[in-house]
Every structure is written in C-alpha cells, then in structure tokens.
Prior knowledge:
- The chain has a 4-stranded antiparallel sheet with strand order 2-3-1-4.
- The termini are close together.
- Helix 1 (21-30) packs across helix 3.
- 34% of the residues lie in helices and 28% in strands.
- By secondary structure, the protein is of the alpha+beta class.
- It has helices spanning 21-30, 47-53, 69-83, 104-110, and strands spanning 9-17, 36-42, 59-68, 92-98.
Amino acid sequence: MDNNSIKPIKLAVIIVDRGEGKHITKLLGEVDVSYHLITLGQGTAPTELQTYFGFGETEKDIIWAFISSEKLSATRDALTKKLCIGKPNSGIAFTIPINSISGLKELKYFLGGAED
C-alpha cells in the first residue's frame, strides 16, 4: 500500500444483543475485515418499557471495525442478509468517516495489511 492507493475508511459500529457479537466478528472475518473488537454495552430502556414493548436484552455487544470503502458494500450486504441487521430488535449498525490516522503504519494495521 503506497500513499497513492490509500482509500477512505470508516469506523463501523454495530450494536447487538449480548452474545451475538461473536457471530458478527465471524462474519466480518468472512468479508476480510481483519481489525475489529467487541466491547460490552448496556441498553437504556427501563425494564417496564422493555416488558411492555417486548424489547430484547438490555445487555449489548458493541462491535467496532475499521472498514475500507471498497469493502463497505459487501460488509453491509452480509450484515443485512445473514444477521438481519436493520430489522426491528435485531441490532443496529452505522459508520463514522475517519478523516485522519496518525501514520501509514497504523492505517495498514487497521486494514489488516502486513507491517513493513
């Protein structure tokens, strides 16, 4: 990867019920997104509201993944088809554009490239 071949990247944030994060990271590996991590989260709806509306778990897995623009479409399609992301009570996913990373070595690391 040289400076002329650097493509825009995004930080994908995917929020699903606790325990589903392992399925997301497996799927990310299948579409060649190599840098991702899971953190634990907590939903904000009070228990009474969850019971009334039939919401799922309040404990969440939050998956953070750096995705190059060329892999974004395949990743979105895989999440939509295999894991039903976007349907009610199945999770939510969104991306944040990354405008700057401290150096080329770090960029290569986040995108799964070999270190020099």
